[in-house]
Amino acid sequence: MPAASFKDALKFWTKLGFISFGGPAGQIAIMHQEVVERRQWIGENQFLRALNFCMLLPGPEAQQLATYIGWRLHGTVGGIAAGSLFIIPSIFVMLFLSYLAVAHIDIPLVAAAFYGIQPVVVAVVIEALLRIGKKALRHSTLYGFAALAFVAIYFLRLPFPLIVAAAGIGGVLMQRRLPGVFCVGDFNPQTNECVVESDPSGPNKRTRPSLAHVAKIFAVCLVLWSLPVGALWMGLGFDATLTQIGLFFTKAAFVTFGGAYAVLAYITDVAVASGWLSTEQMLVGLGLAESTPGPLIMVTQYAGFLAAWHLPGAMSPLAAALCGALVTTYVTFLPCFFFIFAGAPFIEAMAGNQRLQAALTGITAAVVGVILNLAVWFGHKIIWPPSGVDGFALAAAIVSLTLLLRFHLPIHWLVPAGALVGIVRPFLY
After folding, report:
1. Percentage, residues of the chain above pLDDT 70
2. Which residues contact 37 (CB under 8 A, 6 or more apart)?
3. Cα 318-23-307 angle, rounded to 5 deg
4. Would you put residue 196 in left (φ > 0), alpha (ψ -120 to 50) or beta?
5. What pTM was computed for the model?
6. What is the rounded distance in angstroms from the CA atom of residue 89 to the CA atom of residue 15?
7. Residues 258 and 60 sit within 8 Å (Cβ to Cβ)
8. How far from the centroid of its chain's Cα atoms is residue 108's Cα?
């Protein structure tokens, strides 16, 4: 397996930050294509093991996956670089778009560009579903896991953590009957043993899992969290908008199982009740996050921006909004680094544990069903709105999917092309 230099990794993570469209499904697909298939920096089973673990965590799974892979390639420094570069471009893009949304909402050109991008994103999600499903669903039993997960989340509206827990338990129970199906590695039918591929150069050999290591990481992250939030608390008071933003989104970072969609209702209820923004503005923010690079959870930055804009206190609205956005982003993503740096050494150390791998295999299959739910939900919203079938969106999604599947057109080309088509569309009629 080719070794990745830190310089090459930095170039890739920087590039990924600018082309990571399509939400978590699209972003995971891009990382799999680049890191596993094209560059071969890590193996297929190693990638799935990292993905399974990140799916268990609160917060944005794609950003955490990038952090995990960066950590595995180059230790803590690599994880910090990967996780940070994944979101830095989106921070500046969302700051600009948040300002447009609150101060210049009625710009036809911007609305047209977003309209053209949305069907492209639908195609990206579908392509990611096909790609990940092909890799994860190796047996009819795993297709069953995916189907049950889709029914549970789409029709029954069951919470994401419950689905994940059920899939993990199901994987452990089924492993006894079908050990080969739930093996993430090479299965020996004669001995019923699962041999997991390993990389002796990986950081798991340098970072030993221990409670002392977890405590150290927690202490460092606690200090890093206390510096900005504590300064706001002491300087502005507990009831100040910026202080409440820091405290609320810290709490949200620990309950965001299932990513942006799962937590959207929770954030909206609190934000609307606090007078930070309206429900309609929250939906606009989600649309912006869907149409820009970076994780969908960047909608929280938008919410923090508008909250401080509407309740600036003694500051100017723009200055308060910038502070609110940056504080929100900081406390949203800091726990992500803690989860990875504290938990990843344990996951790598237990790579050979068959029960753990069976649980994670079941979870991966269930996640395919969750991604299918995202594709159906998003596709229905864009292609079949309440007014009826959108012919342009349907055609654009089909063309985009064809370009992805048949011609392998890079996403960072396809998205701007969609924006351009959206802009020129009014002139074609």
Report:
1. 88
2. none
3. 25
4. beta
5. 0.74
6. 10
7. no
8. 29
